[in-house]
Amino acid sequence: KGKGKGPQGKRITLKMARNSIRVSFSGRRRLDLSKMGITTFPKCILELADVEELDLSRNMLKKIPNTIEKFQNLLWLDLHSNQLDELPTAIGTLQNLTFLNICNNKLTTESLPQELNLLKNLKTLNLGLNCLESVPTTLGALRELVDLGLFDNALTTIPKSVRSLPKIERMNVKRNPLRELEKPQEEIDTIKRIETLYLVEEKDLCSSCLKMCKGERDELHKLEDMTLNSSKELSFPLLLTPNSSAKDNQEEWRVR
């Protein structure tokens, strides 16, 4: 039996890891160890630290060690769907990273290392499905960010420094209790609006069209007359007390 706490998970050997390297169309080498039942970071993969992409998603990892800094060539790191409740400070040394997915873990705002701000080349950062109560304002330092995932957290506000990132195109904040996104329910407009209006002279209309237009104009005038009449001050001549005093002193008048 193993000495560690909890399930040991699958043991990854160097041979298995080498056989898990795939080459993408762009020529990047990806070490794909996703869905392998891994519970601890395999030390043997440090021998393969020259890969450009590392996929450890869909495992049961609780910690990523600071030895992740050995992967200095990494452009792409996927850690989504694990049990991570913190990130190593050494994550900030991976200066070439353009893609970091840490969604669907157990990260809190406090457990996000400040060193995340050092990843100046990040274009995609996915922090969705975690336990974040706020977004560090320092993420505003990631000036290259194009895509930011913050969905399914406990966020009540998004700091201005993050909202005003210069290159941001997509920011998914769905299913957060955000105060600024609570919009008052829009009133339903019962009046039919027209998008395009064409004006013509009467002489250009055929007799049937002219008749139809005049009919609709008459209907509109009737509607205007009804509106004007309904806005006139109502009079109640049968009231015992004159209207004016009823208006000025309604409470007293009602008691009487």
From TrEMBL:
GO terms for cellular component: cytoplasm. Pfam families: LRR_1 (PF00560), LRR_8 (PF13855). Gene3D superfamilies: Ribonuclease Inhibitor (3.80.10.10). Keywords: Leucine-rich repeat, Repeat. SUPFAM superfamilies: L domain-like. It comes from the Eukaryota. Signal peptide: none annotated. This is LRC18 protein.
